[in-house]
Structure formats: structure tokens, C-alpha cells
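Service request form, structural biology core

Requester: graduate student, group of Dr. S.
Request type: structure prediction, single chain
Budget code: on file
Notes: please return the result as C-alpha cells.

Sequence provided:
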Amino acid sequence: MSDARTIQLPAIAFIGAGSMAGAIINGLASPVVDVEGGIRVTSRSAATAARFAELRGVSAHATENEADANPEAVRGAKLVVLAVKPYQVPDVLAEIAGALEPGTVVASVAAGVTVATMEAAVPASVAVVRTMPNTPAQVGRGVTGVSGGTRATADDVALVRALFETVGAVVEVPESQLDELSTISGSGPAYVFLLIEEFTKTAVAKGFSREQAELLVGHTFLGAAELLAATHEEPAELRRRVTSPGGTTEKAIEVLQAADLSGLFDRATDAALARARELASGA
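Core staff response, request fulfilled:
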């Protein structure tokens, strides 16, 4: 008998075998996850399919060897994850639509492809859920935005939520807010990497070796994030505890605040949002 804490999931098909699909499948390998009916994966490359086929509970097939690999993979699957490039989604949906069984849930990780576009391409008996995961899902620390389509029930959304909770946290938002979410959690890791990159350059300029600078900066960011998570304190409060009145940190913070960091993040995320809307409109 399964442990009461075990996450039970139905048969899942992944169309596309890129880094995000790989991250989710690794999450499904957790001992507390039980995928009844197994995991099917398709890839254009036979070499990639062979790597996935080595994983426990995974059957993988390549479209370069099997022309009907995609429709065969989704046949009988309760949850189908579209992990292909956005431009490939219409063709993939056209290919698999006839093999989707009533009650199937199609979840897409493709940015910019709307619910309306996907719902129009699949039978009315099939539900669609859009998702927006981010790259830390690869280490089980992702954040995924989830938006149910017009035919998706609460149970359908809960199923997709359970899948993505195997690789991190999940936030449910209306589709109208998914682009905004992408500018925060979707692009957010790049913002953090940029800060680490620039801070490391500063450390090197202060006379530290590259190795020392990377250790100092990397562990400082990691430690600060873990402290925030462990204490559940507000970031502003933790910052105040480091910032002694009249001390060195206070002077550094004054310089950063004088640069209008708040406004800078507003402008950066506004630019990302504008571009997301251009992409969605085909610009």
C-alpha cells in the first residue's frame, strides 16, 4: 500500500524532451511520487529519446524513427505536457488532437501561446492549462505560474499544480496575468544572475581572485536566500538587522537607493512585459 504522503499522478505524456521536460521528469522520480500508467516522452532525436528511456518508469520514442510517436504517446494519457517551442505548438496540436481522449488535460509550457489558440486546436472534451515555469525547476526550486483555460475544472488545474509542485512552488493566476508573472519569476533568475555577475566583478576589482570572488558572492546570495526562507522574516527587516546606524552597510545602501533601484526594476519588468505582448501579437 502506498504511503499516505505519496503524490498519485495518472499517466503523463511529454511532447518534447528539452531541459524543462527533463527537470519535471526528474521531479517525478522522487520516491514520494507515483505515476500510475507511467511516463511517455517523445523527442525529435533518437539519442535524446534513448537517454530518457534509461530512466525508471519512462518510455521514450523519437519522431525521427517513428512518425507517429507523438499521437501514440498521448493515447491513453490523462495529462499531456507540451514542452516544445512556441512556434511548434500549432503543428503538434494538429498532430495529436485526434489521439487525445475525452477528459485529457493538455498543459503547455510554451510562452505566448494563448489558451484560446490551444483550445481551438483540440476537441471540446479536452481541457487546456497554460503554465509558466522557470529554470530553477531544474534543481527543484522552481516557481510555476498556472492558468486554467475555459474548459479546465478545478480538478484539472489541481492535477497540473500537483505535477509542477514536484519541482517547486506553484502560483495560480488568471491568464491575463501570466505575462506579468513571466517578467517576475520567469525572467527573474536572469536578474539575479546579472546581480551576481556584476557583484563578482566588483569583488575582483577589490583585489580578490576570481575564485575567491565567486565564492564570496555566490555564497552570500545563497546564504541570504536561505536565511530569508528559514526565518520567514520580511526582507526589509533582515536588511535592517545587517545595516547598523552610521555603519558601512548603511553607506552602501544609501548609494544603491540613490540609484532608484525600485524604479529600475519597474522599468525593466515593464520592458519585458511590452516585449511579451509584442511576441504574443506576432510582432
